[in-house]
Amino acid sequence: MRQFTCPCRLRHRISILSGAGNSRIAARLSSLPLKSTTEESSQPPISSDILLESVRSSQWHFVEQLSDKITPSVVSTTLLNLVKTPDLALSFVKHIDLRFLDFSTQCLAIAVVSKLSSPKPALQLLNEVVVSRSKSSFSVRDVFDELVLARDKLETKSTILFDFLVRCCCQLNMVEESIECFYLMKEKGFVPKTETCNCILSSLSRLNRTESAWVFYADMYRMDIKSNLYTYNIMINVLCKEGKLKKAKGMLGIMECFGVKPNIVTYNTLVQGYSSRGRVEGARMVINEMKSKGFKPDLQTYNPILSWMCNEGRASEVLREMKELGLVPDSVSYNILIRGCSNRGDLESAFACRDEMVKEGFTPTFYTYNTLIHGLFMENKIEAAEILIKEIRERSIALDAVTYNILINGYCQHGDAKKAFDLHDEMMTDGIQPTQFTYTSLIYVLCRRKKTKEADKLFEKVVSKGMKPDLVMINALMDGHCSTGNMDRAFSLLAEMDKMRIDPDDVTYNCLMRGLCGEGKFDEARELMGEMKRRGIKPDHISYNTLISGYSKKGDTKHAFMVRDEMLSLGFNPTLLTYNALLKGLSKNQDGKLAEELLREMKSEGITPNDSTYCSVIEAMSNLEHNAEKSDT
Question: What does the pLDDT average to over 104-112?
Fold first, then answer.
């Protein structure tokens, strides 16, 4: 509803009461004596006839002036009289403000406006109602039932209202509610439109809920809701996400059997699916097929291939092929190239791509800057990253949440807690809420600096804010306590994970095993490996190396080699760390002969010894020589 200042309201009141506009409403009111504000407020509510007449004559100033005196029943009656002129009903609703109506009248207004040829106004009104109700106690069934009553009042057979409700829930990322609404329609015998079902399928696919997407698709089939091109494109994308590329390509034949011809989006989806799995030759086969069907590949076809080939250092092959087809790289292409170079540590080429991007008329995006900043931090070029941030600020570009998180994580990885927390404070000042990633980085740097008490407080703050910690965050905190020898707290975190229904992983148990080994509790560490297996978590080479290292430090080479043998039997190849740990134990036990044998084995396995390796071997050999000298004496 438009807001008026006091002079403006007074001006409208004078124009109405003086008969301005020569309308019948004005004439009727001009015959009434002027009354004080107190007397006006005691006037009875406006009648539906007067309201309807003022709406039809577009006397919106009058409607707005007396909107607080209009009762829900009068609004409802007016709306019912405007069913044949939904555009006028929409204007009416806008001038009295939907938020100030009761729930029943709101739904009636939406039902009337839904008769417009464009769905946008009804969807917008429905969005307002759903959002306002979701702030208190929201039930999609309540909205559905009220819309059923509104539909009955209009005496219409159309079920478009309920399709709109599903679409509205999807737009608001309320996927469960949209699915519930679908089944409420099914209960009532209403058949949802294919486009409505596509909204749900698209939401499920976007959330990677592929299994739910297939369950829903099966229900569509049972309800005899026909799939259209968009439906098939979504399901092909679902199959690609599941890695079922052969079935995804086979869906093309199913489409054509039902008379639905693939479009360029269909083929591009398949190319994306093959490319994301590194199946570039498969992607090229799809491109050849789309060419044979008369489709010309575009940038959306080649950018996914470019992305994968960039990781392989073969971007030039794709760029040459794109050039032959007359395809000029766009901002997405350049960002892919910049990311590929940054990931390989080739920052010089990454910045050269950025410069070329600008030269070609493309403005670097947040993604461009974030990729470059992340690359600089990964290469320990902190000063260069700070210069780039300064450049962004000088261009008056406000940092986004991703940029802040990259910076905070970068400083945390380099142990600069002060700058990380300063950025956290700046982030809050800019009105950007920290995410799980933000807090995980901060907890990590606190633990790295042995400030586990502060890390615990920050963790408690995260929980108190209603943010559910994730596995990475808890693992970071647990590792901090294990490193400082506070195993009681570490194991209490494991118990908290169970309460929060967060499944531990191999990283969790490796932290605990390392902490126990640090305290010399090797048997308990070995028992933890058994617990891992009972939970269905497979120990990895780090798990075994942790135990081997623990036993070796103690000088218990017998158990160290037993763990090594178990590791080999499960198919894990010893690493440099494995050999160095074993050699450390042998040097401690002055077993130079076995150390020499192990060094030869290590080289035969193609593992290059380092300084630590040779130090351990020399120490073991010197002890052997010393013992030999004593024997000769």
Answer: 93
Query: Which tokens in the block code for residue 23?
Result: 């309308």
Q: Where are the alpha helices (DSSP H) in 277-400?
A: 280-292, 299-311, 315-324, 331-343, 347-359, 366-378, 382-394
Question: Cα separations (Å) of 139 from 99, 136, 190?
Answer: 18, 10, 20
Task: Determine how many CB atoms are found less than 10 A away from the CB of residue 633.
Answer: 5
Residue given tokens 């909205």 in the structure block = 143
- How far is Cα 627 from Cα 623, in angstroms, rounded to an integer? 6
Eight-class DSSP state of 43: S
222 neighbors 256 (Cβ within 8 angstroms): no
Give me 391's structure tokens. 């450049």
pLDDT above 90 (res 355): yes
Give 405-408 contacts, CB < 8 A, sequence gap 24+.
Answer: 405/435, 405/437, 405/438, 405/441, 406/370, 406/373, 406/374, 406/377, 407/373, 407/377, 408/438, 408/441, 408/442
For the domain 528-633, what is the CATH code?
Answer: 1.25.40.10
Measured distance CA(317)–CA(320) in Å, rounded: 5
Q: Taking the CA atoms of 160, 163, 167 and 172 in sequence, report the sign of the dihedral they define.
A: positive
Domain ranges of the chain: 528-633
Give the Cα separation of 280 and 301 in Å (integer).
12
Nearest to 605 by CA among 581, 572, 556: 572
Distance separating alpha carbons of residues 490 and 98, to the nearest angstrom: 54
In total, the chain counts a number of residues equal to 633
Which residue reads 């134990």 in tokens? 585
pLDDT digits over 189-237, tens only?
999 999 999 999 999 999 999 999 999 999 999 999 999 999 999 999 9
| 307/170 Cα distance (integer angstroms) | 30
- CA dist 287 and 279 (Å) reads 13
Three-state SS for 415?
coil
Give the Cβ contact number of residue 25 at 10 Å: 17
Over residues 410-443, the pLDDT tens digits come to 999 998 999 999 999 999 999 999 999 999 999 9
Among residues 224, 150, 241, 234, the alpha carbon closest in space to that of 200 is found at 234
Tokens (6 digits) for 389: 């941030």
Pairwise pLDDT comparison (6 vs 424), residue with the higher score: 424
